[in-house]
Amino acid sequence: MVQPAWQDPVLLAPETAPVPEYGTGSLADLLPTLVAGQGVPGFEASIAELTPADRNCVFLIDGLGWEQIRAHPDEAPFLHSLLPTSRGGTGRPVTSGFPATTATSLASVGTGLPPGEHGLPGYTVRNPETGALMNQLRWRPWTEPKVWQPHPTVFQLADAAGVRTAQVSAPAFEQTPLTKVALSGGSFLGRLTGEERMDLAAERLAAGDRSLVYTYYSEVDGQGHRYGVDSDAWRGQLMYVDGLARRLAEQLPPRSALYITADHGMIDIPFDEQSRIDFDEDWELSAGVALLGGEGRARHVYAVPGAQADVLTVWREVLGEQFWVASRDEAVAAGWFGPRIDERVYGRIGDVVAAAHDDVVITASVKEPHESAMVGMHGSLTPVEQLVPLLEVRS
Q: Which residues pair with 135 in a beta bridge?
């Protein structure tokens, strides 16, 4: 029904946004559930549908959301065939967490904590100690990793409990701060090709009576950002990673469970003024804003002192039909970042948080030229971004 011109627009209330399934079915619940089944003390099986295994392997495919697998049975026949196995045979996905972005999700996976506790609540966030934006994926500017994220990883705790633990990934990731705060513990084994990683992951899985192995592939996400999930380049990567998943599944040692998941999904955004709102050219949105953080579909907005209420009002008036626009306290109360917020994390969250509902992004063509040029985007609370698979193969 067409809305009469004299009626006020219908603004999206923050509490109507779909909240990730923290505590029962989010990425942060995966490793705690697996190691609880291996007898590691201090953990509970939060994802009730999963059955314990002595040997657990997690293969995380960056950027390959639930809806992308469902939509591409021809390019990903093996992964598609496993959809009924997801989440312990229920055929349901799990949720990424907010924002649905790599740094946040990898920290959730590795620490077993929601973003409000591990403290990586976005692509870029303000460091309350310095007042500057901190890029948590590239770790710029340099910040002491163990101060920024002090919690131990699940890998470290499992390794200390006698579980044979390993991460198999690209060699370039071994010394990155994000790896150190999110994915360290046990052995890091760098291999360049996907095939080498799959073979070594299977080998390391067999190396212990109880083992926990994590492996990772990034280029599905890379091609999606560059060319979009409707591109031949992206489909080619999907076909390749489908073969990798099959290769790993066929090598599982006895008493093993392989879980294939992702850090987020992805959506293509058209290159037009209606779909891409440029913060750097919009005087209304930029008024009173000291720093623009986050990314196009999940923005942290930091106001100049005293302007928080005005910035919230303007962002809600301008964007409230297309974005869930919340104050920091509203986003926290709604549970976007998890049920608890550590004190050190609270000031990292924007004074205003804007999560896209429609197929739209807030770019920053001057300050973020590379990110603004991307075709595929992610970050928000919509199903295409939030829902990720938890496909299962057992031996």
A: 124, 140
